[in-house]
Structures are given as structure tokens and as C-alpha cells.
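Hey, quick one: can you model this chain's 3D structure?
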Amino acid sequence: MDVANRSAVSEFVLLGLSNSWELQMFFFVVFSLFYVATMVGNSLIVITVVADPHLHSPMYLLLTNLSIIDMSLASFATPKMITDYLTGHKTISFDGCITQIFLLHLFTGTEIILLMAMSFDRYITICKPLHYASIMSPRLCVALVVASWVVGVMHSMSQVIFALMLPFCGPNEVDSFFCDLPVVFQLACVDTYVLGLFMISTSGIIALFCFILLFNSYVIVLVTIRHHSSGGLSKALSTCTAHFIVVFMFFGPCIFIYMWPLSSFLEDKILSVFYTIFTPILNPVIYTLRNREVKTATRKLKNRLLNSNKATPVCYF
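Sure thing. Here's the predicted structure for all 317 residues.
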């Protein structure tokens, strides 16, 4: 049976974060600034890495892909939310809602695998430095990037197929500012208990397992540095702490939301802001802009652009 014939719902109403006009204007300003900063910061990283041959290494290839994913993750729902605050039109078509679910799980699934690949890269750098060049070859790095996108597509397709099988026969108010399965499937005209188990097994447990692996990798790195270099422990601790904060802000909301999908809390909406709006801007700051090589390359790129502008002849008519 055709999906459209099984569903009486042609569009959904996004309730957003608040009904207060004052809060909506506050969110409009704050989220607009965050979105612009996210796009500018991540674009700068991509341009810098591509333009500087010294940054054409596995680590910076992974960081570039992280920036691309962050820009995509920040763009799948935030621009619509910002526009909705101005127009007051908070509806989204059924196809648009399914598209948001696909893009959300595509980018989050890809970023989870990419963060694990970056953790593996740091582990090899610190724990096996003499074998880094042979292990983290360009071929392996490209394979890790491709694998992250393949896993993201497979995970996203499973969620979309699952969503398309749900019958919607009446309620259409989504208690969030974007469509995601934990809030959408509660509107389906079926028993949600089995659906909740599926959600936990495909998203919550996987996110928790990956988070535990990442946490263990940071512990191993810190223990290794402590045994080999006491002087570098404080710097490594600072770096790993900053990285772990970003990882926690990304994984924490995902684990909380998808491990308890049958619940509907205000906290769920607030937590969803972290991995869709806040984390994409923190990643370039924590992972890249604190890096000495990237800051040097950025200054060189800036000076090159300034010098090229000065060298451009001016024609007078």
C-alpha cells in the first residue's frame, strides 16, 4: 500500500522551544549568531586546510570532514527554525519531515564514526608514534572517512524506512523545533512500546557503546602520556579535557533522548539544541582553532589575501 494512502497527515506543526514571543525573538537572535559563526568558522577551517599543503595530512583530513559535517548538521533544521520565528509559519510537509529525519541521522551517524576515527588517530599518534606513518596512511584515512559516511547512510536509511512504515491518522503537532523519530513516532496510530525498543536498540545503545569506547581511548592516551612524559601531561590533560567536553555535549543528549524515547520532556528539546546548534560551533574552536599549525596557516592565508589585494592594480577612468 502506498505510504501516502496510509497516512492522513500531510504536514506537521513544529511547536518549537517556546510559545512566548519574547523568547522566540531571543532565540532568533542567539541562534542566528550561532549559525553564522558556525558556518564562518567551519568554512575557514576547510579553506585553510585545502589551501595549505602543510596541512594535507590524515589528521587534518579528518578535521576537514568534521567541519563539513558540522556545517551540514547546523543547516538541516536551524535555518528553518530561524525563518519560522520571523514568519510564524511553523508547519512542515510530511516529505520535509522525513527529509529532516534522514539528514539528522545521516550527519549524526557519520559524526559518531568520524569522532571515533579521530580518537584512533590520536591514539596512534601518542601510543605508537614510530608506526604512525605506516598505520595512518592516506589510504586508511580515506577509508575511515568513506566508512563514516557509509555507516551514516545505512543508519539513516534504517530510520527513514522505519518512519515511512508508521501510519499517521490524526495528531500532527511535533513537540520540538525539528522532526526526529522520538517525537514523531509518538504521533503514530500504533502501539509505541515496540517502537521504543527499536529506538533504544538502533540509536541509544549504539551511541552509548561508542561513547564508552571514546572515553576509554582518552583514558589510555592520558595513562600513556603519564608514563612516558610527565612534562606533557598537563597539556595533554587540557587538550583531552576540552575534546571530551565536546564529545560529552554531542553524545550526552543523544544517549539521553534515544535511551528514553517514550518520554516527552522539556529537557529533550533543550538537549537537542546542544548537538544541533552548540556542538557544531564548538568543534572548530576545540579541535582546530586551538591548534598551533592551523593558526599559523590561517595567518599565512590572511597575509596572502591581503598582499594579493594590495598588488591588484587600480584603474582610473
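One thing worth noting: Confidence is low (pLDDT under 50) at residues 1-5.
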